[in-house]
Amino acid sequence: MSDNDDGGRNDLRMPDDDEVFATVTDMLGANRVKVRCADGVERTARIPGKMQKRVWIREDDVVLVDPWDWQDEKADITYRYENQDADQLREEGHIN
């Protein structure tokens, strides 16, 4: 057991300056999903090519998205949290 054991807390990836937390609400097909962002905006998010075959994204997953500068209703998914990590984010009050 390590000295800095803090009850099984994982050190999670947090959003960069332009990223926001989001929850996947609907699968649209063609590598696109509908997400509800933490800032209250519903966006159409794109799953980038490097994630398509490696990271499986489903409804109700918690993800990080990078909203587009020129079109606020669209975004790119940058990261997907595992269920255990999403539960930890909820417990710590980062997401609802």
Automatic annotation (TrEMBL):
SUPFAM superfamilies recorded: Nucleic acid-binding proteins
A GO term for molecular function: translation initiation factor activity
Cell inner membrane keyword on record: no
Domain S1-like: residue ranges: 8-82
Keyword terms, alphabetized: Initiation factor, Protein biosynthesis
UniProt-listed InterPro entries: NA-bd_OB-fold, RNA-binding_domain_S1_IF1, TIF_eIF-1A, TIF_eIF-1A_CS
UniProt keyword Protein biosynthesis, yes or no: yes
Top-level taxon in the UniProt lineage: Archaea
Role noted for this protein: Seems to be required for maximal rate of protein biosynthesis. Enhances ribosome dissociation into subunits and stabilizes the binding of the initiator Met-tRNA(I) to 40 S ribosomal subunits.
PANTHER family: EIF-1A
Family: Belongs to the eIF-1A family.
Classification via HAMAP family: aIF_1A (MF_00216)
Protein name: Translation initiation factor 1A
Biological source species: Halorubellus litoreus
